[in-house]
Amino acid sequence: MAYEIVTWLNALNNQELIQRLQTAVSVQERAKGKLHEVFELSFDCKPCYDKKFFLQKLDYIHHNPCSGKWNLADEYVNYPHSSARFYEKGVQGMYEVDDYRLLEYL
Questions:
Q1: What is the distance between the alpha carbons of residues 33 and 23, in angstroms, rounded to a whole number?
Q2: What is the per-residue burial (b if ≥16 Cβ within 10 Å, else e) of 71-95?
Q3: DSSP result, the chain
């Protein structure tokens, strides 16, 4: 979507806004070749105070790669970057998982 916005702004010859989007790119991102920062960076951190909320978020994380536009695996337990296989089948995947069930505070 960001590319479409920049293309549209170029078509409108809106150089003022294009310039603002260019100057918003961080030095690190510019070094990687990024030209425009269209969207404001955000991080929606939510503390997990209870097991129910934690499990809701873990379920979302596990199923997200297989939902909507992503379709990164045929089943959520087969997505290689997920801990789902560990929790569903007891098999460590690409990354070692620390089992949340062993934590005392949940």
A1: 13
A2: eeeeebbebeebbbbbbeeeeebee
A3: -HHHHHHHHHHTT-HHHHHHHHHTS-HHHHHTT-----S----------SHHHHHHHHHHHHHGGGSTTT--SSSGGG-TT-SHHHHHHS---SS----GGG-TT-
The pTM score is: 0.58
* Cα–Cα distance list, 67 to 79, 86, 103 (Å): 12, 20, 29
Write down the pLDDT at residue 2.
84
- CA dist 104 and 62 (Å) reads 22
Q: Which amino acid is at 41?
A: L
pLDDT along the chain (106 residues), means of 10: 90 95 93 92 83 94 90 93 95 92 78
Residue 44 structure tokens: 């929606």
